[in-house]
Amino acid sequence: MQLTFNNGIEIEGLEFHIDAHRKAEFSFVSHAHTDHIASHKKILATPETILFFNQRYKRTKARALGFNQPTKFRGCSVELFSSGHILGCAQIKIDSAGTRIVYTGDFKLTGCETTSPAEIIDADILIIESTYGDPRYVFPDRDQVVDQLITFVQKTLLSNQVPIILAYSLGKAQEAIKILGDFGFEIHAESNVYKFCQLYERCGVKFKNLFPLHEEEFKGKVVIFPPYFKKYRTLFNNIYPKRICFLSGWGMDRSSRFRVGADVVIPLSDHADYNDLIRYVEVSNPDKVLTLHGFPEFADDLRRRGFDARYLGKGATISLDKKGKIFPSASGNYDLFM
Ligand SMILES: [Zn+2]
Ligand SMILES: [Zn+2]
Asked: Which domains can be identified in the chain, with CATH numbers?
């Protein structure tokens, strides 16, 4: 069996791509973040992801599949699992002739305000994201991060400035709004963020104290923008005086606040940190690990820990022969690279 990383992941004999990023006839969509989607003819996804996907691309044929419902696709058994990344985001397990291939997509092991945590799935072949696959990225406890966010807002309001929170419009923004709205702050969300909040509400997540953002008096309110806020420059400039907080795991890097022009970066992340990436691999205990995105060195790290691991670069084709190693052994096993 061959696995190729070309237009997303393509597995020999499987009728759909996995997270294809160019238009495909049929693709599994783990979630509707823009780096995981394109205007496909047909998608396989959770009902929540279909809702968010249709917000970006209309008229796509969709096959909905909930979590933990094994289903057959041309001889392969396919099952989706919670990933803890954003609402509706799914991991996928494909059982093909007794080989269990698990693709985590973006995931997080700790729960959050709007999503249940990722399940760790036993795999023979594990394809795992490694966005934060470097030991520098060990996030503080979530409660501590949530406290940091609330304190930032309180202090900013006390100093008669407007707290502006920069958070991705799908997922991160809803988490921030859930935390801050439930705490009692009045929140005004930019229109894209607000639209996704309305879709979250259709899925049963309720927000308090949330309003769409208009040009008005901002005193005493919290304003939420997507990080690419330069699009709203005029509106943004009208909010004064303000303090800007960016929510991202990259907040572990001191320099990240300069990159986005924020006063503060708080590491509220919707990805697994380094420790949780390692934990996933150890508990799943696969024969082979393919790492995707982020740090290629994470695969070296896993090999030092005894796993047959390889970074899956663009265009790589790998033979999933159960016996062969995917990484060249001391004697050299290069024929398996195809
Ligand atoms: Zn994502
Ligand atoms: Zn992603």
From this structure: 2-136+271-337 (3.60.15.10), 142-266 (3.40.50.12650)
ipTM confidence: 0.98
Torsion, Cα 194 65 29 296, to 10 degrees, reads 110
CB burial of 220-253 (b: ≥16 within 10 Å; e: otherwise) equals: ebbbbbbbebeebeeebeebeebbbbbbbbbbbe
Q: 30 C-alpha vs ligand 2 centroid, how far in Å?
A: 9
Using DSSP's 3-state secondary structure scheme, residue 55 falls into helix
- 107 C-alpha vs ligand 2 centroid, how far in Å? 9
Give the DSSP per-residue string, 102-150. EE--S--SS--SSSPPPPP---SEEEEE-TT-STT--PPPHHHHHHHHH
CA distance 53 to 27: 12
Of the pLDDT bands very low, low, confident and very high (cuts 50, 70, 90), residue 322 is low
Q: How far is the CA of 33 from the centre of ligand 1 (A)?
A: 5
Q: pLDDT tens digits for 46-76?
A: 999 999 999 999 879 999 999 999 999 998 9
Q: What is the pLDDT of residues 238-273, one digit of tens each?
A: 888 999 999 999 888 878 777 788 999 999 999 999
Q: Token pair 């061959």 is at which residue? A: 2
- What span, in angstroms and rounded, lies between the C-alpha atoms of 174 and 117? 16
Contact 108, 172 (CB under 8 A): no
* Rg of the chain, C-alpha, whole Å: 21
Closest ligand relative to 31 C-alpha: 1
Neighbours of ion ligand 1 (CB under 5 A): 33, 106
Kindly give the distance from the C-alpha atom of residue 255 to the centroid of ligand 1, in angstroms, as a whole number.
22
